[in-house]
Amino acid sequence: MTENTSTQHRKIALVTGANRGLGREEALALAGDGVDVVLTYRSHADEARTVVEEVEALGRRAVALHLDTADHESIPAFVETLLSTLRETWHRTDLDILVNNAGHSGDTVLGEITKEHVTSLLDVHFTGVVLLTDALVPHLVDGGRIVNTSSGLARFSTMFQYAVYGAAKGAVEVWTRYLAGALGPRRITVNAVAPGATATDFGGGGLRDSEEMRAGLAQVIAMGHVGRPEDIGSVVAAVASDRMGWVTGQRIEASGGMLL
């Protein structure tokens, strides 16, 4: 594909898992930067419709599509649905930005880890990311952006219950570097954003809902407070912008300086 440098070119981003949490804020931040959005959801279609309305209120177009990134057999059909949606809504068959955000938490206890624990985390956080990206690379414009979601937990290793989750995110960071090298000739940047402690519904929303937990973590964060979902949305939008065209293959931690 050739790079579209027209000033009339309306950028389109695909953000997975954008019906709530970080994905919602990423979609809204991208829309605030003038980007149209295709957002996916695994469940809670009502939340996805609300995000579509919020994007439209910012003056951008948005469409919500169902996708379970852990259901790997469904990816080819999803890609066909996406391409059909792009044709019908934007008269295009390509994307400018891919944000791999979808995921879920999952605690693991040493001595009690099962194959099912490991598989469920890898299926969505690593295998799904690899297979979806691989299927969409031919439909990304040259000069496009891929933003993968890692986690501060790939670096913070003091909470063993997140060991498998953190290891899956570490695998995403390695994949990011390899992919950046492969797509460099097409001027597609590939980076991983690694959020630190952020007040979302992750893990049941304990951090979001507990002032005591937030205050405790604030003691190990240079900026003095845990992150807000919109903080991460802004970082992802910045990494996906034209201004970041010379940055690729990087792990960009957005943690406010946690555990420096």
Describe the protein's architecture and organization:
The chain has 260 residues and is α/β, with parallel strands linked by helices. It has a single domain (12-254), classed as NAD(P)-binding Rossmann-like Domain (Rossmann fold, 3-Layer(aba) Sandwich), CATH 3.40.50. The chain is built from eight helices and seven strands. A seven-stranded parallel sheet has the order 3-2-1-4-5-6-7, sandwiched between helices. The protein is globular and about 50 Å long.
Number of distinct helices: 8
CATH class: Alpha Beta
Mean pLDDT across every amino acid position: 94
CATH A-level architecture: 3-Layer(aba) Sandwich
Strand order of the largest sheet: 3-2-1-4-5-6-7
* Count of discrete structural domains: 1
The low-confidence parts are: 1-8
Q: Would you tell me which CATH topology applies?
A: Rossmann fold
User: Can you tell me the overall shape?
Assistant: globular
Query: Total strand count, please?
Result: 7
Q: Measured on Cα atoms, how large is the radius of gyration?
A: 18 Å
